Amino acid sequence: MKLSDWRKVLAPAAILLAAGMGCATAFAQTGADADLWTSMGQNAALDRHSPLTQITPSNASQLEMIWSQSTGALRGHEGQPIVVDVDGKPMMFFESAWPNIVQALDLSDPDHPVEVWNYVKKTDRDLSAVPRACCDTVNRGVNYADGKVVLNTLDGYLIALDARTGKVDWEVKRAYPDKGETVTGAPLIANGKVIDGFGGDEFAARGRVEAYDLQTGKLVWRYWDNGTDQEIGLTPQTNKANPQYGTYGHRTGLTYPGDEWKRGGGAAWAWYSYDPELKLVYYGSGNPGLWSPSYRCGAKPVSQKACNDGKWDNKWSMSIFARNVDTGKVAWVYQMTPFDQWDYDGVNEPILVNLTIDGRMHKALVHFDRNGFAYVLDRTNGTLLEAHKYVAVNWAEKIDMKTGRPVKVGEHSPLTVGQMAQACPSAMGGKDQQPASVDPNNPEIFFVPTNNWCMQDTPQTRTSMQQGVVYVFANVYMYEHKPGVSGRVKAFNVVTGQTVWDIPDKYPNWGGTLNTAGGVVFYGSLGGDFRAVDSKSGRILWSRKLGSGIIGNPISYEIKGHQYVSVFAGIGGWIGLPVTAGLDLGDKYGAIGATAMAKATHLNLIPQGGELYTFRLPGQEQVANNGM
Fold first, then answer.
1. pLDDT band for position 168 (50/70/90)?
2. How far is 314 from 311, CA to CA, in rounded Å?
3. What integer pLDDT is reported at residue 19 of this predicted model?
4. Set 95, 169, 340, 343: catalytic member
């Protein structure tokens, strides 16, 4: 199928979506690669930190656009490019949203990139993936290792391309839209394996994670995120340091009524990190299927107390997993939101840093969850070290540090069919998939894009139990926590729980942050404003209006003495779905609450358009000419 034909497919198909540290160098690239951007989070720790120093608070105001390139798709650019060395040549690779067009740019002349190949899968495509992509036909990028560019397609193909030619080395069909499974994330490459999951909790999918051999594409291991101990990969050693989380032999993955676990969600659809010393892969799992929670509680009669006493936790949805990279077995797993009643997906990025807490150095994992709490865990064994609210939260008083369980507030916890409950944050979370960043040399302070929304959630009657069909059954109305401020980017201390600075925005912040050793943080707004701010003070140093809303994640790299910053523009994702799918903004429950949000913030006035923009400081010759 030609690219022009794909564009004809996109418009009508989209309408169907209306259905309801000192040790930090262990993760960093070494040598010249430190100047590039070699994986989706810059490194396996996902810290999104660039060691480059050319752009500083004193000169950031001089940044200018050097080049831009169309992605070939109109919308849904939640990811980022990668920039790697291929046979001594700097190359940039990036992937569009559906139909998942991959481009390879030669950056030998970094001001004038040359496209050397592009690729889009043209055979055996499954167009049913488009209306089954819960939250728009987005994509979060590609990865690279050993001469291979590895990518996912929305309709479930994992593909390895030769980085030099764009030819297919191998491909695997590994997710199935008819079962509710679609793929929007970038795969992780670790220890010669490609680690991958998928999404689909809102279509009754059952989450699983798999590892494939990088060289051959052969399956190495596969485990589910719910089910029996054997299916999950639990062992007698799992959670040995924290048995209160749940252990082998206690059927924790079956804490659903009847066979509801078969539609129990828990899909890992976003980000993965890796500690090469511990040989552990980390990721978060999604919500446990349908949003009408009483159907996931086997207590008779159903009540807040009975459904939250631990028997109906719906494990292991909403959980952070640590799996052995070679075997897939679970070293530890911690559930953040037992018996989820809101869709507080736990898939946000697990960032690896080394933190001193109470005078002791910890190999830590930091996770800003949708539920509004910022978690710090010991990544060696899962011990909970800190848990602080980073946005307005009223569904829980706090996290019990002994048990790890939230202390829920019943009046803000929807349960009974037809009975509305108000809760903050909204189901979009205090932060959704948009990744935070941190300087590993200042590991307490994270730069976090946040949503500032609350909701009214009314559970509905379940009318279907079929995989691949919308499996939500809730009316959700979302609204700003404070009128006129729907997004904030903040510097947040994960040890003290204090906000150092924050920047309010009338538009939501659905794109990630980049921090640099030069003392600058970059991020974009859904209004299309791309900004550089002082990492110490939060002062806006520079801002440029781009062609569409920004939901992508900035990257930085240096070639031939110039530091570049690149970012996607192209509104989309759950938050932009009312615009990209042309939904009726008068329906306040449309797109599971996103239409009300889009109407309140006037996102319908933001144009679509997928484009990659690149900036740098002016060169010496340009400075001289400008001074004439």
1. very high
2. 8
3. 32
4. 343
